[in-house]
Amino acid sequence: MIIEQLKPTVLRITLHTYEIAALVSAARWVTDGAKGDLPEEAVEQIRNVIDNYDAEKQTLKR
């Protein structure tokens, strides 16, 4: 994941395919009512995306 700040309120985010798939999977699960368990592989991918996001966010100018 790469996050670039183009303007104060505009970001460009470059994601690996698994990262966008993890986000879409989580969004679908939530919008479908979050019934049942999310597969462990999806949970791990989402955790990785969040970790990458947190690390990249630290590099942005404040």
Question: How would you describe this structure in keywords?
Answer:
62 residues; alpha+beta; elongated
Largest sheet: 2 strands, antiparallel
Strand fraction: 15-25%
Low-confidence stretches: none
Q: Rough shape?
A: elongated
Write the topology of this structure.
Layout: E1 2-7, E2 10-14, H1 17-31, H2 40-57
Antiparallel strand pairs: 1-2
Helix pairs in contact: 1-2
Report on the architecture of this protein:
With 62 residues, the protein is α+β, with helices and mostly antiparallel strands. The protein has two helices and two strands, in the order E-E-H-H. The protein has helices at residues 17-31, 40-57, and strands at residues 2-7, 10-14. It has a two-stranded antiparallel ribbon. It starts with a strand and ends in a 5-residue tail after the last helix. 3% of the residues are buried. The model has no long low-confidence stretch (mean pLDDT 86).
